[in-house]
Every structure is written in C-alpha cells, then in structure tokens.
Amino acid sequence: MDTYKKVYLLIALLASSFCLGSAGDIVHHDDVAPKRPGCENNFVLVKVPTWINGVEDIEYVGVGARFGLTLESKEKHANLFILALADPPDCCSKPKNKLSGEIILAHRGNCSFTTKANVAEDAGASAILIINNRTELFKMVCEVNETDVKIGIASVMLPQDAGASLEKYLTSSSSVKVQLYSPRRPVVDVAEVFLWLMAVGTILCASYWSAWSAREAAIEQDKLLKDGLDELIHMDGVRSSGIVNINTTSAILFVVIASCFLVMLYKLMSYWFIEVLVVLFCIGGVEGLQTCLAALLSCFRWFQPAGESFVKVPFFGAVSYLTLAVSPFCIAFAVVWAVFRSISFAWIGQDILGIALIITVLQIVRVPNLKVGTILLSCAFLYDIFWVFVSKWLFKESVMIVVARGDKSGEDGIPMLLKIPRMFDPWGGYSIIGFGDIILPGLLVAFSLRYDWLAKKNLRAGYFLWAMTAYGLGLLVTYVALNMMDGHGQPALLYIVPFTLGTFLTLGKQRGDLKALWTMGEPERPCRHIQFQPSGS
Fold first, then answer.
1. What is residue 340's three-state secondary structure?
2. Active site residue 161
3. Are 292 and 361 in contact (CB under 8 A)?
4. Is 426 helix (H, G, I), strand (E, B) or coil?
5. Verdict on whether the full-model pTM lies above 0.70
6. Does 384 qualify as catalytic in the annotation?
7. Pick the residue with more confidence: 428 or 292?
8. 25, 189, 425, 437: which is the annotated catalytic residue?
9. Helix and strand tally (H, E) in the chain?
C-alpha cells in the first residue's frame, strides 16, 4: 500500500474513534449529591428572559437548585416578575428592602444556598437568583446536616457575567423584569429523523458501491479465465486493487489505537488541537469527496474517457484525469468550510464532507468474513460503553462526551461528526452521531451485500436486507434511549451492535450458512487451469 493510502486510512481510523449519539443535556443527575426529602429536584437548565424598562433584552440561562419550587415548563405559563437587588448583597440576613412578590438577586457566599432561599422566602420574595462567583454554572445542593428542607420558592444559579449585567441595570435605577421557566425537549425532533435517514442512506450507498466493485472484479476475473490468463489470478492485488481487508489482529488493534487517540484528545483538548483535527478532517473529506464525485461522473458516458485515463502523480500514484479535474472544487469546498465553519449553516458542509469520507472508507476498507466482523463489532461495543459510561469513574467525567462536545477548546465540538440543528427544540443545539457509529456497523452491512451478490442470493433470501433493517432499528432505539435520558449522550453501538450482529448471526445459523460466513466469507471464484496448445500444432 502506498504512503498516501496509509495516511488516508489513518485519518479514517481517527474518524471511526468517535461513536456517540447526543442531543445535549438539559437535565443533570448527580450521584455525589443524593436526593432526600425537600432536596430532590433534578438539576435543570432554566431560561431567564429579561425586560429592561419595558423592552425585551437578553435571555440568560441558569440552573435550578436541588431544593425549592419546581419551575414552569412553558413560557406562556411563566409569570413576569420585578427583579430586586438583595440588601445585604449575600442575602444571608433579612433584607433591608421590603419585598412583595419580587424575585431577589443575591451573590453567592457567606452562607449556604438553602439559608439564602429561606431568608428570601421569609422576606416575601417569589424566587431567588444567585450570582455565581465564576462564569460557569454551579449545582446548588443542600448541606450535609440539612435533613428536612422546606423551601417554597424557586432557586436558580446564574453565571457571573449574567448576574453582573443585571446588577448593573438595577444599580442604575433601571426597571428590570424577568421570567423563569424550564422548557422540556420534544420527544422526537425532526433533526433526529433526518440524521437517521443520513446514516442509513450513507451505509446503503456505500454497500451498493462496495458490492458493485466486488462484482466487477469477479466479472473481470471470469474474463481473464476465459482468455486463458489464469496465472494473473494468483497475483496479489489483481482482484482487490486498492482494497484493504481487515484481519483479526487489526480488529483488536483498532480498539487499542482508538482508545489511545481518544485519551490524547481528552488530555490535549484545546483550540490548536481542534485546528489540527479540522485539517485532518479536511484532508479526508477532500479525498472522499473527489472519489465520490469521480465515481459518480464516470457513470455518464461523456466523462468515461477522462475517468479511464490515468496520469502518475508524485506521492499520490496513478490518478485519473477526472479526479484531477474535480480536485480543485473539492479542495475549495473544504477550505471554505474550514474558514467559515462557525456560521449557523456550516453543518451542511461538514455533513457533505463527512458522508463522502464515510462512503469512501466503506469502499476501501472491507471485512472479509463474519469472524472478523464479529470481533471488530464486539470490541467496538465494549469500547463505546467503556468510554461513555465506565470512564466517568476513572476521569470524573465521560471522556467520549467531553471530547465530542469539544469542552475546553473554545469550539463547537470536533468535526468528526454528522450533525443537524434541532429545529423544534426550545434549547436549540444539535443532534449528532459519530462516524464510528456508521463506519463500523457499515463494514458488516456492506459485507452482507457483497456476499449476497457473489453467492447469487436474492434480496429476501440474502442477508443485506435484514442487516440493513437491523441497523436502522438499532439506530432508532438509540434515539429513543437518548430522549428517555433527557438528552444525555448515549453510546450508539450499545444498541446498534446487538441488533446488527445478532440478526446476522441468528439468521446465518438458522439457514445453515454460519460456518461458511464465519470462515470463508465472500464466495471464492473458481480458478480453472487452461491447457495451452503448442503453436503450429
């Protein structure tokens, strides 16, 4: 394999490291601060829209406390209250100003959160906003010795910058009014439907391309046999030029290398490191996009001569004239996306580059039999669960989720994801799926279609239809689990692998094909040795 192909496969491996479905958390659970009577609320994000002198202003986001009154979930049911500044500012003692249903704004510190809430309630406040001493949000909990907390008003923590802005308006004698409500996410957002269609459609296209290539190679082999050139069949690479077959060792090493890469990302996560990932993503995206465009255009007879004519390019090897023609467009597309990736609709460019990369990887990299596919997906299954769930006990947070969100990087997540904005979600954000959740099960699905075509099985009697359906159902269950968990990131392979691999193994056993699928995989083409007649006889 040439150096260029190795670089591309390295990028593909890194892209496959991310296996996560997520929509962003709006409800936070905390095992460190267990629930008890009067202190059993979930930590929910709270919208705090403001009106300054009767004019609607900025909407801030806070987090609700473990204690106190639960908030309305709909904006139309949330009342508008006057905001008053606490005096003393920490609200640890009875306020000097008289309150009659206002929301009081206080600073964090000098006493417990529950003390502040009790003082505010006794003074006649309808709720209390507590300004954190940092720009981050902090979870307000009850003290260890507080066993029976009874607080009848809502308590919300605001970040330092939001509280400073409100305090500035109040000290300048401006009239400030606020609303407090915590909207729930819709059970299903249309973004998840489109993301499901994108994932399934990507595997579908890649599988048919892979199977078509395998069938063309088989036809070419038969042609060589008929021409009496069977000695060429035994030359390594004739049947699968440019194709990389994964073996058992590679399948196991994937988990080790992907884990090391994930930890490296977690430890080195920063703005410059995200920039490096963007460059790598653009390189892989350009290769994927030009490969897909060249293959698509080659289907039209006007472009076939250019697609079948090659020129040798240093480092890249033999490249078709058609590929050279589309390369400038692909490079320009990737560069424009990289430069303007912060704008609201940049996700479209990211998804186009990502889908092209995934399809190309599934065309180049192949699972030769069910044995390798089972080992690969089983390892990926354990890898996904470990880095989403188990890593919390080792690193105090989920490594996969932190890396996927791009925490501490100043960027909106890593680029190795397909994502779509949540259109009907009051909290906004994106629904995302990692490349690994498509590439890894996609390798097995593509293998199933190659096997069906080369074994001359129809759609119903084959394995592709069932493998494809199983993948779609597994991904659907992932999104159901995602919404049931209030948007918490879920390891998609936890649901996809049992559906996809389980269906394949069960069906193979019932049909009596399991042994052949497990060891041989794609049906071998018979080699006929032809006896040449001496010339002139």
1. coil
2. no
3. no
4. coil
5. yes
6. yes
7. 292
8. 437
9. 16, 15
